[in-house]
From TrEMBL:
Residues 1-88 form the PTS EIIB type-2 domain. InterPro entries: PTS_EIIB-like_sf, PTS_EIIB_2, PTS_EIIB_2/3. The keyword Zinc does not apply. It comes from the Bacteria. Coiled coil: none annotated. This is PTS system IIB component, L-Asc family. The lineage of its organism: Bacteria, Bacillati, Bacillota, Bacilli, Lactobacillales.
Amino acid sequence: MKILTVCGMGSGSSLIMKMNVDSILEDEGIDAEVEAIDLGSVGGNKADLIVSTQELESKLEDYDTKKIFINNIVDKEGLRTKLLEVLK
């Protein structure tokens, strides 16, 4: 499974989301590749799931991939809930 964490520049909030997703996956014993990327690189990457911020929802709606949008990138438990709903 491949998961993309996406933000505008690919070096700020996407890295925080990646670290949180990696931690959650490790806690749950789920094997997946997680990559932090910028919005412009999404089209060139195949993924099973995109994790991004609510602000980018309209910019990612055309991609035929499961998506999770979060409001608070440091809310690990909120992310855990949404992530496990999609993965289980």
